Structures are given as structure tokens and as C-alpha cells.
TrEMBL record:
<dbReference type="Pfam" id="PF01494">
    <property type="entry name" value="FAD_binding_3"/>
</dbReference>
<keyword id="KW-0274">FAD</keyword>
<dbReference type="InterPro" id="IPR002938">
    <property type="entry name" value="FAD-bd"/>
</dbReference>
<dbReference type="GO" id="GO:0016709">
    <property type="term" value="F:oxidoreductase activity, acting on paired donors, with incorporation or reduction of molecular oxygen, NAD(P)H as one donor, and incorporation of one atom of oxygen"/>
</dbReference>
<keyword id="KW-0285">Flavoprotein</keyword>
<protein>
    <recommendedName>
        <fullName>FAD-binding domain-containing protein</fullName>
    </recommendedName>
</protein>
<dbReference type="InterPro" id="IPR050641">
    <property type="entry name" value="RIFMO-like"/>
</dbReference>
<dbReference type="GO" id="GO:0071949">
    <property type="term" value="F:FAD binding"/>
</dbReference>
<dbReference type="InterPro" id="IPR036188">
    <property type="entry name" value="FAD/NAD-bd_sf"/>
</dbReference>
<feature type="domain" description="FAD-binding">
    <location>
        <begin position="3"/>
        <end position="337"/>
    </location>
</feature>
<dbReference type="Pfam" id="PF21274">
    <property type="entry name" value="Rng_hyd_C"/>
</dbReference>
Amino acid sequence: MNYEVIIVGGGPVGMLLAAELALAEVNVCVLERLKETTPYSRALTLHPRSLEILDMRGLKPKLLETGKPISTGHFAALDTRLNFSKLDSSSNYTVFIPQHDTEKVLEDWARELGVGIHRETEVKSISQDEHGVEVTAVGPEGKLVLTADYLVGADGAGSIVRKHAGIPFVGTSETITAILGDVVLTELSEPSIFSQFNEQGQIMVVPLKNGLHRIVAIDPERVHVPKSEPVTLEELRSAMVRMLGSDLGISDPYWLSRYGNATRQAERYRDGRIFLAGDAAHIHFPAGGQGLNVGLQEAMNLGWKLAAELKGRAPEWLLNSYQSERFPINTALLRNTEVQTFLMGSAFTSDMINVRCMLSDLLLVPEANYKLASQISAFNIQYASAADDLPHELNGRRLPELKLSSADGALRNTNAYELFRTGSYVLLHFAEDDRIRDVVEAAGAKCICLVCASLELEAPDWSDVHTVLVRPDGYVAWAVSRSESNPMNVIATGISRWCIHPSIR
Ligand SMILES: Cc1cc2nc3c(=O)[nH]c(=O)nc-3n(C[C@H](O)[C@H](O)[C@H](O)COP(=O)(O)OP(=O)(O)OC[C@H]3O[C@@H](n4cnc5c(N)ncnc54)[C@H](O)[C@@H]3O)c2cc1C
């Protein structure tokens, strides 16, 4: 069967990307080897920017049905927590939600949008030529050969797509491992959250659903045990007794696992008609709860670009901007997880305890705390402007939750994020100039939703904005200032540069 896009891997990244493509009316399928979403949740967090992008698509209420908002996060499990509540957003918290539940919400949404999801289907090989890709898989009914215009590997760390595309996974192998246990702790009378770093190791305890707690521990006596060696309850108990002075009545392990700090990034995220996203493109020590979050942001970045290419409206540079925008962000992500690994797992000495105390004190300085909170939450992202866009300080930044009203009454103190349900570009016009409609019409861009509005609440940096084009993933493509002498010309050129293929300009 022929598709426009085949996605290998139906984890969180594959499911969100599939939904984004289906929203843009792309014929897409997901090939996933598991029969159902795994009940063992690696990730437990959805950070503020991930929540914002999912809010744009109307999914936040669903996530909050099972997830619990927490206003703080952590960096290297330092005692001073990162304060997300200072972020300028109604999503100024992390949602504590097991990966299983996040995946369920994303899969349900993808199904609602008509994505063909083939479970129990394992991809065995892929190939490409200049016309398309071919995938061989084995499913419940035997061998399957599928073709598509493009293929995305969202198939996790061991990605077969990355291997068959010949893309090197550059970086370092694991030097330490940590242990994880989802267990019952009979000596805790109520759900508790705490962490401890001392000369015996580093340990975090977090409450889960169903009376379980998650324990993650870096035990200096066990850090060189390879990831492949199964964890025993006894091993976890012994680490707890040494680090906490008690095993807290540990029993009934639901899931025991070991994970490492291998840190790698795909040398490139694209090879011809093949793309990589999520763990297939980068791996690192799970510190600060970032991997899944970053993967979701990649899915949001790639979806609309791939759709624009397939629908013949993408400018020639757009699809390659997936790599140029996301690669440096993930390089920074790998560095921040390496620093955290160093602070949590390299030495359990009084010197390291002193370093951690000092850093923890520094995080009491609001500006320092804000800087790291905005990094972990991905609020600090600013994509580079397209080469020919007129400079404006908003270019490449995330759209904040502006409160908008319109003369026709359609918007009344409305959160701008509600304008992004359909995944179109949004052209926000604040200058009450009727010529804007003609400019949009003359440009012939069908993928733009024009909104003429006024700001209900003042927003920093927005008072001089005449018109702004916001991308489907909620970042500003370009903004035009009110002092611009010929704004309609600049707007027409900006629309043409971003939303129209040169052959039809
Ligand atoms: C202990 C631990 C804790 C973590 N905690 C957090 C956290 O709190 N917050 C956070 O953001 N991140 C966290 N992470 C990271 C997070 O779990 C991953 O980044 C995330 O799962 C990546 O999603 P993905 O969709 O890219 O890949 P995956 O979730 O790995 O999904 C890949 C999918 O592809 C399928 N697949 C693979 N090969 C094939 C094939 N050949 N054919 C068909 N299907 C295939 C797999 O079955 C799988 O379903 C944690 C990781 C670990 C190990």
C-alpha cells in the first residue's frame, strides 16, 4: 500500500507526528511492533512547553484528567527546585503523568484523525530512491511491503531506520548505570516525594498511582553494572539501606530496570526522504525529565513542514530547517544532561556535596533559577530567522498566550492558543488596516488563518507589533513593526517567502 508518510515507531513521538500530519490531511500510517502501549512508564513528566504545544491542539484538558500539575522541577536533583511558576504561561508547571497515559492520549488523538496504526508490525528493512521509500515489515498477517513519499524513524534509541539509512550515531557509550524500581513502600504512611545525595549515593523517591512509589538510585557500588543485567529487589533494597538507612518496607516490585548515560546524537536528522525524530535522533541520561518532551517538540517542528512539502506549498528551504532548528537545541540538551550526570553520578565525596550545596544556593537567586527553569521547560528556544526576513526581536520566539478580542465579537478575551487547533499558520493583524485581507488573498496562500484582533492585556514586546505570522507549531515566523513604512509590501513578501513554493509565486 502507498502512503505519503510512513512512521516507524508508535511511541509518543511517532504518535504525535502522525496526528500532526493527519491534521494537515496527509495520508500517514504508523508501524509499531508492540501490541499495545507498554505499561512500564519511563517518563513521568510533561514540561511547560510540551503542555503549551499540546494545548494549542486542544489536548491539555485530557492530559490533566490523569496528570497532576507540579509547580517545580529539578536540575541534577539539587535541593533547590526549579520554579516553573515564574514562567509567563498558564502552563507554568510540569504535569506529573506516566508515559503510558501520555501515549494513550496521543494515540487516541491520532486514531480520531484517521491515522492507520498497524500494531504488532515490526519493520525489518527500509530502502529509498529519489522517488520514494520502501519498507518491509512483518505483521500479524505475515510479510508486508509498503511504500511512501517520506519515512520518519521514531523508533527509539536502537532505531533500525537510522541504521538502514546509514546515519552515524555520534557520541559516547555508557560509563555509569542507575537502577529504577516501581515498588510498594509499606513504611511510608502516605505518598511521599524526596531525594537525597550523600557519600553512599544518590536516590529519588516519587509517588506513582496504585500505591506504588518509583525509586531511582545511583549506587556507587553498582554504577559499573551493565544496563543489560537485570535489577533484583535485593539490589535495590541494599542501595536504599545504605543511602537512606532504611529499605522503607520495599516489596511487590511492579517494574525493575537499569538505564545508562550513553549520550549520542544522529550525525544528521535527514537522509534524502528519511527523517529521524525523538530517541532515534538522540539519547542521553534521563536527567531533568527531558527526552520525551524534546521528542514531542520535534514532532511538532517536523509535522507541518513535511505536510507543506507534500502539499506543494513549502519553500525550498523549509524542510531542511527541521535539522538546522532542532540539532543545536539537542546539542545543548545533551550538554545539560552530561552536566547533571556529572553532578549526580560521578563522585560521592564531601567535595561534591559542597559543590552541590553551592549550586543549590545559587538557584535561590531568582534569575539563576529562572534561567535553568526556562531551559528545562524549553521556554528559552528562539529559532534563527529565515535569511531574508526583516529583523524583529520576536522572530523565532514562542507565541505567548496573548489575550485577544476582535471587533466582530468572534474573539472575546480569547487565548491565542485556541487559534491553533487546525494546525494552520495564523496571521495576527493588530493595525486595523482593511488592506490586509486583499494582501492575504492576493498571496494565494491557502494554509493561513487571518485573525484581525486587538490585545486585551498588554504583553511585553508586543505593543509595537503591526502584524505577525505565527507558524503552526506556535513560533513566530516574522513580525512587522508599526513603524514599518510599507507594511503591506513586507507582509506580502513574508507570506510568499514562508508559505508558497517558488514555482507558484
Ligand atoms: C528511566 C527513564 C526515565 C525517563 N524519564 C523521562 C521523563 O520524566 N521525562 C521525559 O521527557 N523523558 C524521560 N525519559 C525519556 C523518554 O522515555 C524517551 O525520551 C521517550 O520514550 C522517547 O520517545 P520516542 O517515541 O522517541 O521513542 P520510544 O518511546 O522508545 O518509542 C519507540 C517505539 O518504536 C517501536 N519500535 C522500535 N523498533 C521498531 C521496529 N523495527 N518496528 C516497529 N516498531 C519499532 C518501539 O516498540 C517503541 O514503541 C526517561 C527515560 C528513562 C530510561
